Amino acid sequence: MTNIRKSSMAKKDEGQRLELRRLDDLFEGLRKEMDNMFRPWPVMGAWHVPSLQNLVGRGIRMPLGDLADKGDKYELQLEIPGINKESIDIKATRSSVEISGEQSEKTEEKRKDYVFNERSYRSFHRKVDIPVEIVPSKVEAKMENGMLHVQLPKKYPTKLEETNRIEVK
Description:
Layout: H1 3-38, E1 41-43, E2 46-48, H2 52-56, E3 65-69, E4 73-79, E5 88-92, E6 96-110, E7 115-129, E8 140-144, E9 147-153
Antiparallel strand pairs: 1-2, 3-4, 4-9, 5-6, 6-7, 8-9
């Protein structure tokens, strides 16, 4: 074998090794990202592993909400602008409430020299676990300015503690 041929083969081998090294680096970076996603971290004295739903669901809209204890009931407020109240589905159990909805729109504009079509689709899903047992048959909801207000009556009402305002010195 000639020196030129050997040199050519060596350069080809070196190029393939470089490509494999780049591919290894790419997968090493991906492996590190996956390890970081599933690595437990401390939350309030316990170790917490993020749920797959929270990781995968980043592209899915989950409305922001507040749950307030009012003694005899819980009040849940969810931000869901752009969804009609007729498109909302609420299911309550003794320990949770599941709220979902979807809405699609299509507009078409025709002119002499063009047709313009536009479509949009919105959906959301949220399940909220309730700390104490509620009465599903007495759950009430109303929609107001893009906010959904849900009243969740407790099976066993509790008395709220009085709170005293403390002045900071």
